[in-house]
Design goal:
This protein is mainly alpha-helical and 242 residues long. The chain is built from 8 helices and no strands. The protein has one domain. The longest helix is centred in the C-terminal third of the chain and has 37 residues.
């Protein structure tokens, strides 16, 4: 039996079957899984500056503590160095130089003792702030700049104000060292050692002051650089939880 064709008006192409599953959109990341912004990296020059501040702080703290102990009547162990000199004339000369140092130091007590306290306090502050800076703690950069500048001013001031005490101490310290070395070195060795020691005394102390002042300026310069500010500002921002 011949098949009956479908009505012409109703002829339509068969529709494509709908897919049973539509491609799913990539899963959205939960809010709590969002990562916090990366923390600013500490510049290498900043780390070097903080270590330098730590060294200066230790030096100031030690020097100030020693001076305070001396002026408060603590035992001065350096005097025992004179008793170990075997030559009677050299020992007498060392004792005279030491007594001169004591007299000059006592005469300058009114200025030396406050400077010693200031040096001690600045050293302690430098130690604490530099350690906090190395640990990435916030609110340390501005204070470090101020304390580093203050200790540089105190060191320069002490160099000129306390020149009499320093020279008297160096006179005694160098001479008693030379007396000890003369008992153990040959004549040629002693001449070379004495020349080197006097050159160190002449150029070493002012040279160290220049180096220390320039180093303090470089530390302040490093702390005020934009990358240093960014590091400490980033350290103070709260970590986002998403």
């Amino acid at each position: 039996m011949p098949s009956v064709p479908p009505p012409s008006g109703s002829s339509q192409p068969p529709e494509a079957p709908e897919p049973s599953e539509r491609p799913s959109a990539p899963p959205s990341r939960p809010a709590h899984a969002s990562q916090a912004p990366a923390r600013a990296k500490r510049p290498r020059y900043l780390a070097v500056a903080l270590v330098g501040a730590l060294v200066f702080g230790a030096g100031c703290w030690t020097e100030g503590c020693s001076r305070i102990n001396y002026y408060r009547g603590g035992l001065d162990e350096t005097q025992t160095l004179n008793s170990s000199i075997t030559n009677d004339a050299d020992r007498a000369r060392a004792e005279a130089l030491y007594q001169h140092f004591v007299e000059v130091a006592d005469a300058e007590r009114g200025r030396a003792f406050p400077l010693s306290i200031a040096t001690f306090l600045l050293g302690a502050a430098l130690l604490a702030l530099a350690a906090r800076g190395l640990a990435g703690k916030t609110n340390t950069r501005t204070a470090l700049v101020q304390v580093v500048t203050a200790q540089a001013v105190v060191v320069v001031l002490g160099y000129f104000v306390m020149s009499n005490v320093r020279n008297a101490e160096l006179d005694w310290g160098i001479e008693q060292t030379l007396y000890h070395q003369r008992e153990t070195l040959t004549s040629e060795q002693y001449v070379r050692f004495a020349s080197m020691t006097h050159n160190v005394r002449r150029y070493g102390v002012p040279g160290w002051l220049v180096v220390r002042t320039l180093a303090s300026a470089l530390i302040v310069f490093a702390l005020t650089r934009p990358r240093s500010r960014e590091f400490f500002e980033a350290a103070g921002k709260p970590v986002s939880e998403g």
